[in-house]
Amino acid sequence: xxxxxxxxxxxxxxxxxxxxxxxxxxxxxxxxxxxxxxxxxxxxxxxxxxxxxxxxxxxxxxxxxxxxxxxxxxxxxxxxxxxxxxxxxxxxxxxxxxxxxxxxxxxxxxxxxxxxxxxxxxxxxxxxxxxxxxxxxxxxxxxxxxxxxxxxxxxxxxxxxxxxxxxxxxxxxxxxxxxxxxxxxxxxxxxxxxxxxxxxxxxxxxxxxxxxxxxxxxxxxxxxxxxxxxxxxxxxxxxxxxxxxxxxxxxxxxxxxxxxxxxxxxxxxxxxxxxxxxxxxxxxxxxxxxxxxxxxxxxxxxxxxxxxxxxxxxxxxxxxxxxxxxxxxxxxxxxxxxxxxxxxxxxxxxxxxxxxxxxxxxxxxxxxxxxxxxxxxxxxxxxxxxxxxxxxxxxxxxxxxxxxxxxxxxxxxxxxxxxxxxxxxxxxxxxxxxxxxxxxxxxxxxx
Length: 447
Known about the structure:
By secondary structure, the protein is mainly β. 4% of the residues lie in helices and 49% in strands. The protein is built from three helices and 33 strands. Strands 4, 6, 7, 8, 10 and 11 form a six-stranded mixed β-sheet that branches. A hairpin with a 5-residue loop joins strand 20 and strand 21. The chain starts with 14 loop residues before the first strand and ends with a strand. Mean pLDDT is 80; it is low at 1-11, 63-69 and 258-265.
């Protein structure tokens, strides 16, 4: 069986290449009309609703058994539409069909081809140098070269067979180039090139979303199937860079138990149906070494890449690796304000004290500072939490990577759930203010 077409083959050549793609066979589907059981026509599907008829079912079937027998002497083929076996209703004969053409070839698969060079002449050819290579827009990759050990001879009507394979790593047009340099019966050296072209498509598309919540980054990956067959994902693994740790977040079913063998858990593959079926993965990323990202502050941060392996319906493997996934720009804080102690019970219009901690996240001394509650967003009458006493206070210097604790006396002017916000830290040396450093909710009781 041959596949492809030889663009350079001429009638004067004694040799010709025949190419067949080696891949998993497909199931043979019967194209005959739908088969049926004659009992369905005679008795109907409500037979078992009647207990008496159900008890006589075997006798009724026996009286009509002649409909279901395959009689070799019957040349009318009157039973060709009848079910001879329950599996006949599936439309699958149990036969497998070898590939009739190159078919669809996808990125990440292994292209394997059976190549036969045939001698169709009536004489023997000798000293055959055979080469096979894959040509793409970017590169040429040699798959077979017998220059150092040429094939001694191919007899008349004979052939020489070999198998080549190639891991498909590029999209677009590919050309399998098969060439033969040989001596014919007159001793003349002849050169035979043949070209077999095919297109490599993308089996999957991966869409990613990156969201950052405080010190945690969440990566969502949506994998979509663009092939014409179902894909079974064996593994989707995120490989983070050295600065990150990654954990896959998924819903676990406590009632399901994996198969355990030698202490290892095997999970069922994830089915992504043909026709743009999709599946989503969610990963939680944590930064391990913030110092290593100092040179990338304000720019995109490299998070890592995805490794995806899958199989088709009949087990044909595939593997893809995405490009580096970029995260959101990281803006490093110089200072941070944390609430250490807030009273459990806060009563309306009764002063209360909160203990705060000012952290210096830099490697230099910061301060002195002035602290006040900003009134820019709301008027004094509309604010639910205001300062009780002096409207500003002074803090001393904060050493590198250290903290300074201080207290503020506040008073609540509105009941219910309120928010402590608007605290502004002003660096008196660098003339720099830091706003919205703290937002903490409290409950204000009336009594």
